[in-house]
Specification:
- This protein has 210 residues and is an alpha/beta fold.
- The protein folds into two domains: 75 residues, Methyltransferase, Methionine Synthase (B12-binding Domains), Chain A, domain 1 (Orthogonal Bundle), CATH 1.10.1240.10; 117 residues, 3-Layer(aba) Sandwich (Rossmann fold).
- The chain has a five-stranded parallel β-sheet, sandwiched between helices.
- Helix 5 links the parallel strand 1 and strand 2.
- The radius of gyration is 17 Å and the shape is globular.
- The protein binds cobalamin (B12).
- The site of cobalamin has 42 residues, from helix 3, helix 4, helix 5, strand 3 and strand 4.
């Protein structure tokens, strides 16, 4: 049914919730880097999405996958978030209006916090004015937006236009499973990423000492 061979990714795709949790714990205990584990989880979730698309899985299966992913993330969180106390600045983040997917965004939040940033997380289904308000309040030089639904690309563009319209200079990084160079151009963002660690790379550029 799929070309997945990696056991954790396969367990995710097959919705074997107990096995997923056991494998995540086992891998953490044996010292496998947490981002490697995230990569395998993400590959499994992509397969869940494909099966949903082809009608082999239904919404109930998407919901189930979302739930055991949350449990897996709770196990990974202390390992991803690290203990970097150095304050490097504030970053605002949210999933754009109309989209409630947040598992990926939450991983981005954990990594940014782990890298020493103060993260203002606006949550999901965030309208443009909330992004504008948070950027004004924090005076952040960097906003991160997450999107998983292709239909929400327009909402992302609206949020970016609203920031520009308000005269704010903050750079915008966008990310999610389908974003690429063409999405970046069409919404007018400054940077795009398809994995959570991309967010840290770009933050380092924005916050680099001049
Ligand atoms: C789990 C899931 C759900 C769960 C979400 C639970 C939650 N709390 O997030 C629930 C059940 C709620 C859900 C609902 C829906 N979903 Co859904 N869902 C998924 C699924 C299977 C996995 C998403 C996920 O969590 N992946 C795991 C995480 C770790 O990966 P990630 O999100 O991609 O994040 C990583 C990167 O993208 C990146 N990243 C993410 N954000 C950012 C931000 C920045 C700045 C950076 C740098 C990086 C970055 O870093 C993360 C870690 O590396 C995807 C399939 C897929 N291919 O992604 C479909 C998918 C996204 N869903 C889809 C659909 C259609 C829906 C529904 C419309 C279904 C329905 N009929 O109701 C609703 C929409 C609800 C809404 N309004 O948002 C489609 C979207 C298709 C499209 N073209 O738009 C997908 C692609 C499935 C498919 N192939 O058809 N879904």
């Amino acid at each position: 049914m799929s070309s997945l061979t990696e056991p954790l990714s396969t367990a995710v795709a097959e919705l074997e919730d107990d096995k997923v949790i056991d494998l995540v714990k086992e891998r953490i205990n044996s010292g496998i880097p947490p981002l490697e584990i995230v990569k395998n989880l993400q590959a499994g979730m992509t397969e869940v999405g494909s099966r949903f698309e082809t009608g082999d899985y239904f919404l109930s299966e998407l919901i189930l996958a979302g739930e055991f992913m949350k449990e897996a993330m709770e196990i990974l969180e202390p390992h991803l978030a690290g203990s970097n106390q150095e304050y490097r600045g504030t970053i605002v983040i949210g999933t754009v209006r109309g989209d409630v997917h947040d598992l990926g965004k939450n991983i981005v939040v954990m990594l940014l916090k782990g890298a020493g940033y103060n993260v203002v997380d606006l949550g999901v289904d965030v309208p443009s004015d909330k992004f504008v308000e948070a950027v004004k309040d924090t005076q952040t030089p960097l906003v991160a937006m997450s999107v998983l639904l292709t239909g929400c690309q327009e909402a992302m563009k609206e949020a970016i236009d609203a920031l520009k319209g308000a005269g704010l200079q903050a750079k915008v990084m966008i990310g999610g499973n389908y974003v690429d160079e063409s999405v970046l151009k069409s919404v007018g963002a400054d940077y795009f990423g398809t994995v959570a660690s991309d967010a840290v790379k770009f933050a380092e550029q924005v916050f680099a000492p001049q």
